[in-house]
């Protein structure tokens, strides 16, 4: 998935589902310095995430000091095509204009790769799936090119112009 870099922060989007309600959240900071994923309560309130009696309250420490937070189990978090079900995230107050932090609890557990050259975020699994899809595409294209009546010689592995321009 494409990520954004504004010269200071790297951000992405994700989709969160809580008790059957879904919300897309943009401008989530990819924070390799944060041990946990934290989403602003102001943002999550829209889908019914609120502090409830019995929720444990913790304190997070960072460069800006300490802030209280509580945890909630989300039905699902979707990052591009990657879905994580029944995941606990922290809900806590963040600096103004920050919707959330995507922390190491998700980035490391699910082997996300932050590619700063291409400005992409993906898991090693997603990259492997893309490689298989590309291989299948190339093999199907080559098969069609070889059976093409106008095919004279093999020009390259990616197939002839006729089939590539037509999506096969």
Describe the structure concisely for a colleague.
With 168 residues, the chain is α+β, with helices and mostly antiparallel strands. The protein has four helices and ten strands; from the N terminus they run E-E-E-E-H-E-E-E-E-H-E-E-H-H. The protein folds into two domains: 4-110, Acid Proteases (Cathepsin D, subunit A, domain 1, Beta Barrel), CATH 2.40.70.10; 125-165, no CATH class.
Write up what this structure looks like.
The protein has 168 residues and is of the alpha+beta class. It folds into 2 domains: 4-110, Cathepsin D, subunit A, domain 1, CATH 2.40.70.10; 125-165, no CATH class. Helices cover 21% and strands 39% of the residues. The protein is built from 4 helices and 10 strands. The protein has helices at residues 41-44, 104-107, 124-146, 161-165, and strands at residues 4-5, 10-18, 21-30, 38-39, 57-62, 65-79, 82-92, 100-102, 112-115, 120-123. It has a 6-stranded mixed barrel with strand order 2-3-8-4-7-6. A two-stranded antiparallel sheet has the order 9-10. Residues 154-159 and 163-168 have low confidence and may be disordered.
Question: Which properties best describe this structure?
Answer:
six-stranded mixed barrel; 168 residues; alpha+beta; Cathepsin D, subunit A, domain 1; 2 domains; two-stranded antiparallel sheet; 10 strands; disordered C terminus
């Amino acid at each position: 998935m494409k990520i954004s870099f504004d010269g200071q922060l790297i951000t992405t989007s994700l989709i969160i589902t809580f008790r059957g309600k879904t919300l897309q959240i943009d401008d989530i900071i990819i924070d390799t310095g944060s041990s946990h994923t934290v989403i602003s309560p102001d943002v999550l309130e829209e889908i019914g995430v609120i502090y409830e009696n019995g929720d444990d309250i913790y304190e997070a420490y960072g460069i800006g000091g300490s802030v209280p937070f509580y945890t909630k189990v989300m039905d699902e978090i979707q990052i591009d095509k990657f879905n994580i079900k029944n995941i606990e995230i922290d809900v806590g107050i963040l600096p103004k204009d920050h919707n959330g932090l995507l922390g190491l609890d998700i980035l490391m557990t699910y082997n996300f790769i932050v590619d700063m050259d291409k400005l992409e975020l993906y898991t090693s699994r997603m990259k492997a799936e893309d490689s298989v899809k590309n291989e299948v595409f190339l093999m199907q294209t080559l098969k069609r090119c070889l059976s093409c009546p106008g095919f004279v010689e093999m020009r390259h592995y990616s197939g002839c112009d006729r089939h590539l321009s037509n999506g096969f």
